[in-house]
Fold BTB domain-containing protein.
Amino acid sequence: MMHTPNPTLRVGFGVESLVALASSGGIRVYYDHLNNIQLDPAHRRTPLMDSASSEHKRKRLCSSASNTSANDPTAIEANVAIKRHPDFWFDDGSIILLASSTDAFRVHRTVLARCSEIFRDMLLVGDPGPGAESEGMIEGCPVVRLPDDVADICRLLKAIYDPLIFARDKEMTFRERLCYLRVASKYMVTAIREEVITYLRSLYPSTLEEYHAAPTFSEHSSCNVLLAVNTGITCHILDILPTAFYICCLLLPRSVLLEGEKDADGNTIHLETSSLLKCLTGMADLLESRHTFIDTDLCDLANANVCGKGNCHLAFLELVNSIHEHKYNDINIFDADGVFDGTGGIDISANGRAPANAPPEPSTDVGPIKRHSEFWFDDGSIVLLAGGTEAFRVHRTILAAHSEVFRDMLLVGDPEAADQEMVEGCPVVHLPDATDIRRLLTAIYNPLSFTQDKEMTLQLGERLCYMRVASKYMISTVREDVIAHLRSLYPSTFKDFVATLATPHTPDLWYNAFSAVQAGIKYDIPDILPAAYYACCLCPVSILVDGVRDKHGNYMCLESSSLIACFAGRSSILALRSIYLDAVFCSMANGEGDCDDEDCRLCILDLIATILSSHLLDIDIFQDPGAFAGILHFSGLCNLCTAAWEETVDTAKLVIWMRLPECFGLAVSWSKLLNKGQALEA
């Protein structure tokens, strides 16, 4: 027997919802629920009930119906008022089902009982049980009014009288099949329920072999995937949920995942809150597993240089770096055309050799090239070729001196190699992106172009591009300089942090904060994360969820794990604020301070009212004077109370700052976090 679902509660992704997420395990946000007929155990009929009892019940029903017909005029008019259904009115039917409207269905009681456990227990139908009302007799047949609408009763009867309906109707929509499942589950029509569940399992299988044979992603609409998750939970089809959740994470845009999607009828399909959290945490866990079991092994394989060939080694390094740069957060790891098995990039087999169907080795004769105006040195000893045309003639020894990757790749420049491409007597190395090569060479030949950028003309996004190239080619000096710049923007000491707060809250600031969070995670700089996360939390919740564009139109958004950290951090900071600010203010209003002036007490009450009305969910507590200290200028408090108020604000700032790493789930203290960062650098 199915249970009635919990009441529905819709929540947005404001701070209010964060509190709900933290404190409530019973919030349910979903598209529909079943109006179940629940049978009182006293009314359940089993095959063991003796025939005498059944006969007594039949006589009682007939007697009751006869009395009703004789004494109640409304029962007589029922024959006139009802609307016979054209498809389900059988002249030899033995029971009449009334919909919530006046539509009537005359069907066969034994057929209902044979297919539906609910009707089997409800019959002989003279005792309909809770949720279904007896309406007396019509044309000599007992009448039962059901709480369902006409469409659901039609589905129920189609499922009973035509169990091959799914085989006949190949074009039946996904939503319609779920409607059949809902009705079949409600009335326990086992055959139809199993039919729909089999269909769902074909779309969301539980084995990898079946997953590869399942329909392509193009056949999964956003609404269908959301409905599949909700249905798997509501109807207890647990084995479809892993695949359904995975497809949700893989296909649905962040906005759809968080806000839902409207179906063809204009109804918004939502995930339950618990399901949404499973998606977000699942994406983070999948990425962690991918980095652990795939990326790390690929890096080890690239460094091993199994075949010993320089070109193959370089190709493998480029493949790994391309995945790391462009598909770092891609969880599409199971599909044949996914990031790791797809044909869109270089393919190297597991033993380090080029695949059997690889193209022939390139000719040593390089076609027309375009010399770079800045990085073409006449005495250069190696040519870096980007995109097959743009060329950079530079010094092999200088590259090797600055880059560990080029130091290990010097064999590529061996002019004695028989298959070595040459340009003007210099060996050629193919690299994928001209812009990245320019950054690489700028960092090596002109490092002061950004280390001495005191006016901050170089934007953080561009600096992080240098960071990416420096990490890719292991240029430690450039990496260290960008890390130092990040630490100046998102410091780990309270004094330095307060000095950064003068920057106004703008989309560019939020864009930089989002970028810093991603850089701190990707490049193992944990000490910048508390301040960077805090800066993210200061932006509007809509931007925190949907992402932001800078003034150049570049888009940036947080990953799922970072979004969860921000939500948790906001809740934790609000909780600390309530303890160290709000509660202390209230105690001052209650006369627990050193001042006993009634005017001051009234002023404090007024200040608290202002905070509750204008700054109830404000976590911007570090600004000076800020929302909590700035209002004192108009308060009229005495000097003693003003000093006590300001001391309370300053104390709260220090306490929350010291616990900021803990708020975002990074470490229990700043010292632990800094030790972690030092260990990673070592």
About this structure: Residues 273-304 form the longest helix (32 residues).
